[in-house]
Amino acid sequence: MERVSFSALDLESLYRVIDASINIRKRYQYFLWTQGDLQRLLPHEILVCATGDLAKHDIRIDCFSGAPYGERMIELLGDPERGLIPRLVSHWRERDCAPLILPDARCDEREHAFLTREIRHLELVNCAAHGVVDYHSGMGAFFAFFRIENGVCRKYRYCLDLLVPHLYMALQRIAIGESPAAAAPGEGLVLSEREAEILRWMRAGKTNQEIGLILNISPFTVKNHVQKILRKLNVTNRTQAVAKSGPRKKPLESVSR
Question: Within 10 A of 85 (CB to CB), how many other CB atoms are there?
């Protein structure tokens, strides 16, 4: 890799980014972290995180963005068959998991050109992406930074390689912190309004496809909500979730997203 020079301000930001990552336990903390000193090192408008089995595209999509985005955008990005993120993950793995930059004038691969067109079609402008993956299990995380002002320089590539492991570990800490097992004794389970609605249809025996048709959302979006429900209830499958959320003295609390 070419030599990269850091200013005193860059080095100070780098130290603060790494130091602050250790204390992240909540999603709002992660968002604030990515909007702070990280912006000096990896400027971006939208950050999309894909976690799970990267090899099989069995992934959960999270978006941390200062710009508004809706469920439809998440569907377009995360669809297992046609979504931009799974295709970026595949392209990244095919290129030996090296940091991925789009557009990149040095690359003339057909898939690279297609992905660049798709990024521009979705008005995401450009992309820098990298991840962490276990080659034996395929499990890991992939991070895609979009709308990078002034493009990607050598320092950006270097910081991408350097900081992605810290982005990954911070997400792992969030997963642990959000686990009901880690909650304070007596703390209520909190589902969003949409999660509570989907859980009711799960109790009725509906599949993701059927729930999607009922609620006019994609099965992929339903799947993402189901994964969040399972995590919040600290269970591993739908049957356990339905059983655990059955008749209770105090119903599950529902909050607006």
Answer: 22
